[in-house]
Amino acid sequence: MPILNNLMQQLVNGLALGSIYALIALGYTMVYGIIGMINFAYGEIFMFGAYAGLVLALTNYVNVYVALLGATFITMVLGVVIERVAYRPLRRSSRLSALISAIGVSFFLSSLMVRVKGPNTRGFPTLFENRIFEIGDFQITIYQIVIIGVAGLLMLSLHLFVTYSKMGRAMRACAQDQDAASLMGVNIDRVISVTFAIGSGLAGAAGVLAGIYFNAVQPYMGLLAGLKAFAAAVLGGIGSIPGAMIGGLVIGLTEILGVTVNLSEYKDAFAFAILILVLLFKPAGIMGRKANKKV
Amino acid sequence: MKKLLNNWLIQVLLFLSLLGLTAYGSQIINDITSPYVLTIGLFIGINLIMALGLNLITGVTGQLSLGHAAFMSIGAYASAIATVNYHLPFLVGVLIGGLIACFFGIIIGFPTLRLTGDYLAIATLGFAEIVRVQFTNMKITNGAIGFLGIEGSTTFPIVMTIAVQTICAMVWLENSRNGRAMLAIREDEVASSAVGINTTLYKIQAFAIGAFCAGVGGALFAHTTTFIQPTDFGFQKSVDILSIIVLGGLGSIPGTIIGAIVLTAAPEILRPLANYRMIVYGLLLVVIMIFRPYGLMGGVNLRQAVRRAMMFPKKKQAGREE
Question: From which residue to which does the signal peptide run (chain A) (predicted)?
Fold first, then answer.
């Protein structure tokens, strides 16, 4: 059954790639759920995380988990600062102005990185030895296990956090009705800061994972990854956390399957083609609920 | 005076004299200005034409589109193929570029305009990416290597004349029945469909006209740079055009003109900063949005302002007397 084995192999590859997209998509969807804004700078935060991981890894004293944690922490701070400086003053104005501000931030971050680290693609140092496990007839690399494992762990803890913690409940309340939540004593500014911190942290972790997986880090890597993750968030139903996970996995799997059937030149188009098709039949995404419009 | 302006014959005459004046004036500018400044002027004009198209879609009709570069690339490639492979005259090539982009605008518009808000935005973005990947893999466009050997036929007077035509067409359209319907859709889609406006029709109309403008702009672009490749028309390009209209003030034609001038000239003015140029450009976008959240000309309707200055004082006083 060579075809089935090949399929299993591609599923594993797709799962690893999809986990990375899902992590970034979570950031998009959480921010959207709470303040209804598309944070176009997420791709760049992802890139920043990858560089932070790279710099930490190059110090030689650090193992992969410390690099991951360090990068996550740096991007969390970055996310909160960006929200504070570029988005908070625009919270009451039109959503498009916030969008342009986000685009300005993303220009700023990527060109800053070009200035600091140069425009070239950099390899990632080997943080741990790559081993290949053979399960039955298909193989899984230890990188893939780490990526899927870390991503799964992060998503699970996010889920627990949002469902059971006090802050998580405040976040869900803000997503439903910001004014009502603030009347109930929820500190909206804090909730939004925390949302940005978590979302950016996830994107930063995804950046390190992507750096390890593709062994390539460059200042413009955030653009396409960000767009695909955004597509994943919308595909799953923007504002829905499980939707972002499913959307990310679907986009990752489609891309890998596209490569498998020998259409790798079109692999960047696959994600979007699937997205448009799904939206035509289910305009609010896979997990999204159709909002009833009050007239 | 107002009655006189409403006469179509007067309007046509005014339009023609404006065109003549532009052609003549820009010819003079063309002769006395340095090629460097002229090239910047050329790109201001091209960006203005495309931005006016997007302004109709996003600013007037309220449909956020993140795929304007796709229509631009379709126009650019179509016109390049027309003039290089089929040896058609330059202006015919520009027209073909516009028409084919318009055709695709309609085809894309039908299914995607059922979506609203951010879903529409991501669908148009996805469409643009698909178009870019398609151009990268097509033989006739020479794929990723790029389309070479286009004649540099675009001149400053031609661009300026087309830009003025576009401005006039947009002003005229905005004050027509169709334009008012589009504005109504932006303000409240449900309400406007309830009063009998065929929202799908007008949205597709806006999309088609906007795509036409983008196609013409793309054609002019191709015949300026003489070399085009799919990466010229990435997401970045769509964002550039969107920034022009949001920074200028959504839905405002004078705003779009100012936005096109500021954002096209800014990278050139910032050139002495060399490596820090794009960093400052990004900061500039953020700062302008924070201090003018509705754009430079947001909430300012020049036509109304002029009218108010010219005619309104009397009426207002009359109202006070009552």
Answer: none
Distance from C-alpha of A88 to C-alpha of A105, rounded to nearest angstrom: 13
Going by C-alpha positions, the residue among B299, B305, B256, B301 that lies closest to residue B48 is B256
Domain positions in chain A are 2-281
Closest among A256, A186, A282 to A20, alpha carbons compared: A256
ipTM over 0.85: no
Residues 6+ apart with CB under 8 A from A72: A49, A201, A202, A204, A205, A208
Confirm whether B39 is domain-assigned.
Answer: no
- Is A262's Cβ below 8 Å from some Cβ in B? no
Chain A residues in contact with B236 (beta carbon < 8 A)? 223
Q: CB contact, 8 Å: A265 with chain B?
A: yes
In tens, the pLDDT along B214-269 reads 999 999 999 999 899 998 898 888 988 988 888 888 888 888 999 999 889 888 88
H or E segment to which residue A141 belongs: strand A138-141
Decide if B135 is inside a domain: yes
- Asked whether the beta carbons of residue A115 and residue B279 sit closer than 8 angstroms, the reply is yes
Residues of B in Cβ contact (< 8 Å) with A294: none
Contact A114 B243 (CB under 8 A): no
Does the beta carbon of B145 lie under 8 angstroms from any beta carbon of chain A? no
Q: Are A129 and A64 in contact (CB under 8 A)?
A: no
Residue B15 lies in a domain: no
B275/A contact by beta carbon, under 8 A: yes
Helix B117-136 and helix B68-84, axial crossing angle in degrees, nearest 10: 30
**pLDDT tens-digit map of B115-170:** 777 778 888 988 998 899 889 888 888 888 888 888 888 888 999 999 999 999 99
Q: Which residues contact B262 (CB under 8 A, 6 or more apart)?
A: B247, B248, B296
Within chain B, what is the greatest distance between any pair of CA atoms?
73
Give me the number of domains chain B comprises. Answer: 1
Range of the domain at B115: 46-316
Residue in chain B lying closest to A113 (CA) = B279
The burial class, CB within 10 Å (0-12 / 13-18 / 19+), for B5 is: exposed
| Nearest residue to B78 via CA among B96, B52, B104 | B96
- Closest Cα partner for A122 from A36, A183, A58, A205? A58
Helices (H), ranges, chain B: 2-6, 8-32, 35-54, 68-84, 90-112, 117-136, 156-174, 177-187, 189-194, 199-225, 235-248, 253-269, 277-291, 302-310, 312-321
The answer to whether the pTM exceeds 0.90 is no
Q: How many CA atoms lie within 13 A of B159 on its CB side?
A: 28
Taking the Cβ of residue A264 and every Cβ of chain B, the question of whether any pair is shorter than 8 Å is answered with no
Tell me the pLDDT tens digit for each residue of A163-201.
899 999 999 898 888 889 999 999 999 999 999 999 999
B290–A111: do the CB atoms touch at under 8 Å?
no
Determine the pLDDT at residue B316: 46
Interfacial A residues in 51-80 facing B (CB < 8 Å)? none
What class does CATH assign to A2-281? mainly alpha
